[in-house]
């Protein structure tokens, strides 16, 4: 069974996984017990998140649904129909953002999860690969296969702060943005891509804070730990160049840990000028 997504319970005692077998499993880490199936869809589960404020697990699937689960029950608390296949989701309670096929970005207020709060067409021209809710719940990031990231604010009065920028490109070569992760302390964020690189950015000053050296394979997923002292990322072949370019002898899957220095992830002070 191929795993496509995972999520940690907020207390670090439990991890959840979902994948091509259409099931989500709960793995109790402290007791050493066997994994338990806690969610089922009609198609692969591609993303999931724990919602500490509601004590629920939310799962998104290619079956065009979101499902909310109380892991003590066998049936979902609520099933939300989506306009198309789920590709990515992100939660910063009470904000939930879902990216689907056909460039839909659906926003939910988890205080009323059965009703869409807003639906937005992605500012990016091509397929959505990942989304990340702002830490302050005021908007979200979206990354796509075109090597570009969009910064979107939900408040209509903040629309002048929306922008897109290019990343994970090398001359005429364009690579997918596979992961977006906000730093839990500084509010800056990381992008990781099929070019095997990851970068740190400050959206408020529109600056790249640090360019990191590349892996020899794509980075397919990444995450900061609870205090941002560790940035973990996985490197493996991502099939973006097809089966004909897959070499089992060299395509080794690896997990790397990077210890960010403060200068790499802390926002730089803004320079203001006064008129005399």
Automatic annotation (TrEMBL):
An example Gene Ontology biological process: RNA export from nucleus
Keyword Transmembrane helix: no
Magnesium among keywords: no
Coiled coil: none
Swiss-Prot/TrEMBL keywords: Repeat, WD repeat
Gene Ontology terms: cellular component: nuclear pore
WD repeats (start-end): 38-79, 177-211
Molecular function via GO: RNA binding; ubiquitin binding
Source species, domain of life: Eukaryota
Protein name per Swiss-Prot or TrEMBL: Uncharacterized protein
Protein's organism: Brassica campestris
């Amino acid at each position: 069974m191929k795993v496509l997504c995972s999520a940690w319970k907020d207390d670090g005692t439990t991890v959840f996984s979902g994948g091509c077998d259409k099931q989500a499993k709960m793995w109790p880490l402290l007791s050493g017990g066997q994994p338990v199936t806690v969610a089922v869809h009609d198609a692969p589960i591609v993303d999931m998140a724990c919602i500490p404020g509601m004590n629920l697990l939310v799962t998104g699937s290619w079956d065009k649904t979101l499902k909310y689960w109380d892991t003590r029950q066998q049936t979902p608390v609520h099933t939300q129909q989506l306009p198309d296949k789920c590709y990515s989701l992100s939660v910063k309670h009470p904000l939930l953002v879902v990216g689907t096929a056909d460039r839909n970005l659906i926003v939910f207020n988890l205080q009323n999860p059965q009703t869409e709060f807003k639906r937005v067409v992605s500012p990016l021209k091509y397929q959505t690969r990942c989304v990340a809710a702002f830490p302050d719940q005021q908007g979200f990031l979206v990354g796509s296969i075109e090597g570009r990231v969009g910064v979107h604010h939900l408040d209509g009065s903040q629309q002048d702060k929306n922008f897109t920028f290019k990343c994970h490109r090398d001359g005429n070569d364009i690579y997918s943005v596979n992961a977006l992760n906000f730093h839990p302390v500084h509010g800056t964020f990381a992008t990781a891509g099929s070019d095997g690189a990851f970068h740190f950015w400050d959206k408020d000053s529109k600056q790249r804070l640090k360019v990191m050296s590349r892996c020899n394979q794509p980075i397919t997923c990444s995450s900061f730990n609870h205090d941002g002292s560790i940035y973990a990322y996985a490197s493996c072949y991502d099939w973006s160049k097809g089966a004909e370019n897959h070499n089992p002898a060299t395509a080794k899957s690896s997990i790397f840990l990077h210890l960010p220095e403060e200068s790499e992830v802390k926002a730089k002070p803004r320079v203001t000028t006064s008129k005399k």
